[in-house]
């Protein structure tokens, strides 16, 4: 059901297709992220059980100017994944930019649809194995109805990748939105509102929380589209992790992973053993809520989920036949980044988190090429004198940490 706010939202994305993208940049870089990364889909949705040779039917619902569509279609072309990516958005302007990006890359595995996701299933021909909906549900009049529409076209055994805004990391955004509603009422033309927003940002008092917030930069570097989307959006709501779980559970979904899983583990922020022990007693949703409240810098939540009634049994990383693969950065480079004190340092939106890895981690990571199996890697290390039991211990810990950081995942069978 559309309302007056929704009409304004539709007009916004026609005038300021989001995010601001220039198709000429495709020659220089591929934008990657979560959700919608093929390695993540292979592991977090399908548990590395779905053969690469089986065609994948993916839907990118509310695809905007094409980031997820281009990434996934490019990954499928690069890694020999047959299938198609169906892009769907109701903004003609956004669709044109996404199409120009695909053309610049010579991608031929994309199907284009201009329609509202609320008109699913009639807007598409068939069901999908993977549905991506990034930054859209929180703009809808009724996010649960939007999610139900997506589920109406989810094939059996399929899964979703979702992104919604999170409240604490957006501190300051809603205060400035409140101010702008008073100075630039939503019924004024978009360009006039944007002018007011720029003036307000120029003299935003030092005490305003948005000035201290370094979790995103849309209003600083995202052009007109970024500024409008963040500060003048006619409707966005943030979901804390409990609200997100309530939405997903209400739709009959189970979360397979939040990105990155380590960020949602309160132990990441609790060196004190007494506090760790208390946190460990909480149920999984409460643990994630505790992590969110402690780090306080999450501005989005990315969740992969599947139907709760039929969760997949993921492949076992300790199995000799399992094939570990680096998400993006070659595992060799991850190995090189290990510090002399045996830690890898990760940045979670500016929060520096050193992660201790076992002394054999570097030797193991150097063998990970997306082709060698765990058994083969163990054999290489055995040839250099590492007993199997020592390998197993080191691999277990390396895998647990690297997968919780979303850096090393398991590849699907051929
Ligand atoms: C914030 S943008 C996100 C774009 C893209 N998913 C990304 O993350 O870069 C929201 C997009 O959702 C689209 N959208 C909003 N409501 C929609 C609906 N009911 N059906 C289809 N698209 C919709 C808008 O046109 C816009 O392109």
Could you please describe the fold and organization of this structure?
This protein has about 425 residues and is an alpha/beta fold. It has helices spanning about 5-15, 40-45, 65-80, 90-105, 145-150, 175-185, 190-200, 210, 220, 225-230, 240-250, 275-280, 285-295, 330-335, 360-365, 375-385, 390-405; strands at about 55-60, 85-90, 110-115, 130-135, 155-165, 255-260, 300-305, 325, 345-350, 350-355, 410. The strands form three sheets. The chain has a seven-stranded mixed beta sheet, with helices on both faces. It has a two-stranded antiparallel ribbon with strand order 8-11. Strand 2 (about 85-90), helix 4 and strand 3 form a beta-alpha-beta unit. The radius of gyration is 22 Å and the shape is globular. The model has no long low-confidence stretch (mean pLDDT about 95). Bound molecules: S-adenosylmethionine. S-adenosylmethionine binds next to loops.
SSE topology sketch:
Blueprint: H1 4-15, H2 38-45, E1 56-61, H3 67-78, E2 83-89, H4 92-105, E3 110-114, E4 128-134, H5 143-151, E5 154-165, H6 173-183, H7 190-202, H8 209-212, H9 218-221, H10 223-231, H11 241-250, E6 253-258, H12 273-280, H13 284-295, E7 300-307, E8 324-326, H14 331-336, E9 343-348, E10 351-356, H15 361-367, H16 374-383, H17 388-404, E11 408-410
Parallel strand pairs: 1-2, 1-4, 2-3, 4-5
Antiparallel strand pairs: 5-7, 6-7, 8-11, 9-10
Helix pairs in contact: 3-4, 7-10
The chain binds S-adenosylmethionine.
């Amino acid at each position: 059901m559309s309302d007056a706010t929704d009409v304004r939202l539709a007009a916004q994305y026609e005038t300021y297709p989001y995010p601001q993208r220039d198709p000429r940049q495709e020659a220089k870089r591929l934008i990657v992220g979560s959700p919608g990364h093929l390695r993540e889909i292979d592991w977090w949705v399908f548990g590395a059980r779905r053969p690469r040779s089986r065609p994948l039917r993916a839907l990118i619902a509310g695809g905007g100017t094409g980031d997820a569509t281009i990434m996934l279609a490019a990954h499928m072309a690069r890694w020999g994944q047959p299938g198609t990516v169906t892009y769907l958005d109701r903004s003609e302007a956004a669709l044109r930019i996404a199409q120009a990006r695909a053309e610049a890359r010579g991608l031929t595995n994309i199907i284009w649809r201009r329609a509202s996701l609320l008109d699913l299933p009639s807007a598409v021909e068939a069901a999908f194995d993977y549905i991506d909906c990034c930054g859209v549900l929180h703009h809808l009049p009724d996010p649960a109805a939007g999610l139900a529409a997506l589920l109406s076209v989810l094939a059996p055994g399929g899964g979703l990748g979702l992104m919604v805004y999170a409240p604490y990391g957006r501190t300051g955004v809603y205060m400035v939105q409140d101010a702008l509603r008073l100075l630039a009422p939503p019924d004024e033309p978009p360009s006039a509102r944007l002018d007011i927003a720029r003036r307000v940002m120029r003299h935003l008092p030092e005490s305003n929380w948005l000035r201290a917030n370094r979790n995103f930069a849309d209003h600083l570097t995202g052009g007109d589209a970024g500024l409008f989307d963040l500060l003048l959006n006619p409707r966005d709501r943030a979901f804390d992790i409990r609200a997100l779980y309530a939405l997903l559970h209400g739709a009959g979904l189970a979360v397979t992973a939040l990105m990155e899983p380590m960020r949602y583990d309160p132990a990441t922020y609790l060196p004190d053993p007494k506090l760790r022990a208390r946190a460990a007693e909480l149920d999984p949703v409460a643990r994630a809520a505790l992590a969110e409240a402690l780090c306080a810098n999450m501005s989005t939540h990315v969740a992969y989920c599947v139907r709760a009634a039929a969760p997949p049994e993921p492949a076992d990383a300790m199995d000799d036949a399992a094939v570990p693969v680096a998400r993006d950065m070659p595992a060799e480079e991850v190995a090189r980044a290990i510090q002399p004190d045996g830690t890898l340092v990760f940045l979670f939106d500016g929060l520096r988190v050193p992660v201790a890895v076992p002394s054999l981690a570097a030797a193991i990571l150097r063998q990970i090429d997306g082709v060698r199996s765990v058994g083969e890697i163990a054999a290489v290390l055995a040839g250099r004198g590492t007993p199997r039991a020592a390998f197993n211990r080191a691999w277990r810990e390396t895998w647990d940490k690297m997968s919780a950081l979303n850096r090393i995942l398991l590849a699907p069978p051929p």
